[in-house]
Write a structure and sequence with these properties.
By secondary structure, the protein is mainly β. The chain has three helices and 40 strands. The strands form seven sheets. It has a 22-stranded antiparallel β-barrel. The protein has a five-stranded mixed sheet with strand order 4-10-11-8-9.
Length: 739
């Protein structure tokens, strides 16, 4: 069955959701309670029956900012910290928030961080086609990666230039997506929102998991996740060790790979019920193609001529992180937290480009490039949370000061067609010729320091919920093109904030409205030698959220209007320069539903309409593009994923089946809006079997097969006037043992 339009798919899925919600009122797990009765975290250890490596239970080591979501049942999370830095039920947050739980990550067997949001409204991850190099995601039309909108445990993951830390999804407990500006708590960032990845953390329950995977394109992967209390510590210490090793090719062939090694030790010390210290660390080595592009013919067509070459290829990246999360409760109403992390990244990238093909299409001329990057960053966030009342008004207040610093060094070299041998397009002699390595140029350096202070109050009076926050930032940035060049200094300050109001119309039903602002510094100078002013943005959002009482079913609707000003565009008076005069406006609405009906039976639905256009902007040719749509951002997207586990009374007990639909609507291939990308519908599938259904002695043994784009839809995605190919049908089989 196919869907010609996302609305028809939404209607069908919506009917399914209503039926499931009705059934869930009798079958829902954990007997969900009313909004004001939600338990956000328990001090007692989780029962031994919980399978923590399978995504059950609450593994957050701290209870507020950076601690991650809680109140989780299957695909449904009731409480998250990302939007407020406090334990706040999702229905009380005056902005759109989604949580991808560990169980959903397991069922979909998510292989990259960008793919974790494939079934989340407002988010797209394939604007540049197949690209395992970066965790690139767009939310509501805005790039999250380059605008420093990716977070790990509540702390920004900073990247710049070509150097961006990558996140391994196997090491995560959940991913939280906050849509819309978040500068009022976090400082500079994307107006589209932030992605906050929650690391797996120690728990005081013994558990373990080992798994082996094999799949398309010679993909082989082994992983483990073990932990529990430390023997002899009287329940005050716990550990967790997570690791993964992957050797894989890609559909490009020609020796391209997607290899990774990751190991993440963690340790928790809890000397009392009021004090918790958790050490978090990671070491990761990855190797991907330095280029994933194919030569483009005129008319927006990606050919099958791969632009790279195995004799001069590879993006090799080594990264590490060490940090901690500390929490102390002076009283139940006064809590201090401190989160710290140090990140290091070292990158070496070699690539070849095709810069032209002769008329006979027999010879391609090429150039190449070589770069080395080093990135070091530190982030520190201090939070003080207080609960108090002023007359009939109950307050949850958070005050904090945070600091972030990064230093990026870059060396680059390149060779032109006169030094790089041509590619014979008849014999396709990839890898058959020696390709010289360019001499690296001098080291350029970029450093940035950010200090921010923030204050937030969540006030409840009657059925009203008012959330107000404000933050002031100071950002200092230095740039030097070489060790001998003069340092260019650029300082910025900004005040940002958010105000939102919700009303509890009925138990679990909360309509809301909010206004929020954001800013991002921009490096460089205009034609007059003046530093670019920061790009700023604001958003108006209104919506309604509903946690259906007595079930684990949540639905949400949101409409938004975002404007980002002072973006960099070509200067019409001097096209070789840029000016901070452009703007974009993104408007649209989103609908989301998440339901957990029974163990192993879940449903998630997401629909998004986004209309993002240029305002007061020019193209690189100097031509006005006012009113044009931003390229590569589809106007409509729909995604739904459903799993069904046969009940114990069924002859098919132990079997779980599932499937997903991803509809990607039309978008423009270039900012001049001359050509459209066609619509595409992709299908994913899941089949799994728990062997405990045969004999209890096999408890914990599971076989699972996941298929992605199972009907092998061949399509390309064009944006900024360049087209990229996407991954064909892929199948991965897993053998998993949990205890």
């Amino acid at each position: 069955m196919t869907f010609g339009h996302p609305r028809s798919a939404a209607l069908l899925a919506g009917a399914s959701l209503v039926a499931l919600a009705h059934a869930g009122s009798a079958q829902a797990q954990d007997g969900t309670v009313a909004l004001d009765e939600i338990s956000v975290r328990s001090e007692a250890p989780a029962p031994a029956a919980l399978n923590l490596s399978g995504g059950d239970g609450d593994t957050a080591a701290t209870s507020g900012g950076g601690g991650g979501p809680s109140g989780i049942t299957g695909y449904t999370a009731r409480v998250a910290t990302t939007a407020t830095k406090t334990n706040t039920p999702l229905v009380e947050v005056p902005q759109a928030v989604s949580v991808v739980t560990r169980e959903q990550l397991n069922d979909r067997n998510v292989q990259s961080f960008a793919d974790s949001v494939a079934y989340v409204p407002g988010a797209i991850s394939a604007r540049s086609g197949f690209d395992p190099r970066f965790d690139q995601v767009f939310i509501r039309g805005f790039d999250v990666l380059t605008n420093q909108g990716i977070y790990r445990d509540g702390l920004r993951v900073i990247g710049s230039g070509f150097a961006y830390p990558k996140t391994e999804p196997y090491g995560l407990e959940a991913v939280t997506i906050l849509r819309g500006p978040a500068s009022g708590l976090y400082g500079l960032g994307s107006p589209g929102g932030i992605l906050d990845a929650t690391s797996k953390r120690p728990v005081f329950v013994p558990f373990g998991e080992v798994q082996f995977q094999a799949g398309s394109f010679d993909r082989f992967q082994g992983a483990f996740d073990v932990g529990g209390p430390v023997a002899g510590s009287d329940g005050t210490m716990a550990y967790r060790l997570t690791g993964i090793r992957r050797e894989a090719g890609t559909f490009i062939g020609l020796g391209t790979n997607d290899d990774q090694f990751n190991i993440a030790p963690a340790f928790t010390w809890k000397p009392s019920a009021d004090t918790t210290f958790t050490f978090l660390s990671e070491y990761q080595v990855s190797s991907t193609p330095a280029t994933t592009f194919f030569y483009n013919d005129p008319g927006f067509r990606a050919t099958r001529y791969y632009m790279g070459d195995p004799r001069f290829a590879g993006l090799d990246q080594t990264q590490y992180r060490v940090g901690y999360a500390f929490e102390h409760k002076f009283t139940p109403d006064l809590i201090f937290r401190q989160n710290f992390r140090h990140y290091g990244l070292f990158l070496s990238g070699k690539y070849v480009d095709i810069n032209g093909i002769n008329p006979e299409r027999t010879i391609a001329t090429r150039d190449n490039g070589y770069q080395r990057n080093g990135l070091v960053q530190q982030t520190l966030d201090n939070q003080l949370e207080a609960h108090f009342a002023t007359g009939p008004i109950a307050h949850t207040a958070v005050a904090g000061i945070d600091y972030a610093r990064y230093s990026l060094t870059t060396r680059f070299g390149a060779l032109g067609p006169e030094a790089v041998p041509d590619l014979n397009l008849v014999t396709r002699n990839y890898g058959a010729q020696f390709i010289p390595t360019p001499v690296l140029g001098s080291t350029s350096r970029q450093t940035q320091d950010q200090i921010g202070i923030y204050l937030q109050d969540q006030a409840k009076f009657g059925d009203f919920i008012l959330t107000v926050n404000g933050r002031h930032d100071w950002v200092f940035q230095d740039n030097a093109a070489s060790p001998d060049s003069a340092v260019s200094r650029q300082d910025n300050t900004a005040f940002t904030g958010r105000v939102g109001l919700g009303y509890v119309l009925a138990p679990g039903l909360v309509p809301y409205a909010s206004y929020a602002t954001t800013f991002t510094p921009q490096v460089g100078q205009d034609r007059n030698g003046q530093a670019f002013k920061p790009t700023t943005g604001d958003q108006i959002e209104a919506g309604v959220k509903y946690l259906i009482p007595g079930t684990s079913v949540q639905v949400a609707f949101a409409g938004f209007d975002i404007r980002q000003s002072s973006i960099l565009r070509p200067d019409p008076a001097a096209l070789s320069f840029q000016s901070a005069t452009g703007a974009v406006r993104s408007t649209g609405f989103e609908a989301e539903a998440t339901a957990t009906i029974a163990p192993g039976t879940n449903l998630t639905i997401a629909y998004t309409h986004t209309d993002i256009r240029f305002v007061d902007s020019t193209a690189a040719t100097g031509e006005s593009i006012n009113g044009n749509r931003v390229s590569g951002i589809p106007a409509d997207t729909y995604a739904s994923f459903l799993t069904y586990a046969f009940p114990p009374s069924s002859p098919l007990r132990g079997l779980q089946i599932g499937g997903g639909i991803r509809y990607i609507g039309t978008s423009y291939a270039d900012d001049l809006n001359t050509v459209r990308n066609p619509t595409v519908t992709l299908y994913d599938a899941l089949v799994a079997y728990d062997f405990a259904a045969i004999d209890p002695k096999y408890k914990g043994l599971r076989a699972q097969v996941n298929g992605y784009n199972i009907f092998d839809r061949t399509y390309q995605t064009c944006s900024f006037g360049f087209c990229n190919r996407n991954q064909p049908a892929t199948v991965i089989g897993s053998l998993i043992y949990r205890w």
